[in-house]
Specification:
single chain, about 120 residues, about 0% strand
Length: about 120
């Protein structure tokens, strides 16, 4: 298990962000999780036509299975979209921190030897 970067008990008002850690997490989500979820949408099984039979109760079950498959596909799509938002937010935060660090480094006043 990873140890936290900051101990909340001693951090006070300090916060630290390592852009590389955020980008690493975003990269892992992008390469490991998203492809599996996107593939899942196309591998949801449906009841083959006529598999339930021709009597009315069986047809009702078949329709329920079809609606459940559609709802599952919609839910997976929603999860994919939410994970993509998390990935985008991680990358945006990392870029914001990097930009702020660069601006801060450029803002530091230079002192000359004459005082």
């Amino acid at each position: 298990m990873n140890e936290p970067l900051i101990d909340p008990a001693t951090a006070g008002d300090q916060a630290m962000c390592k852009p590389e850690a955020l980008l690493d997490a975003a990269g892992r989500l992008t390469t490991d999780l998203l492809p599996q979820l996107e593939a899942l949408r196309f591998h949801l099984l449906d009841l083959p036509p006529g598999a339930a039979g021709t009597w009315d109760i069986a047809q009702g079950y078949a329709e329920t299975v079809g609606r459940a498959r559609q709802a599952t596909g919609d839910s997976v799509q929603f999860v994919v979209e939410q994970i993509q938002r998390v990935i985008d937010d991680l990358a945006a935060t990392a870029n914001t921190v990097r930009d702020a660090d660069q601006r801060a480094a450029g803002v530091v006043p230079r002192t000359n030897s004459t005082g």
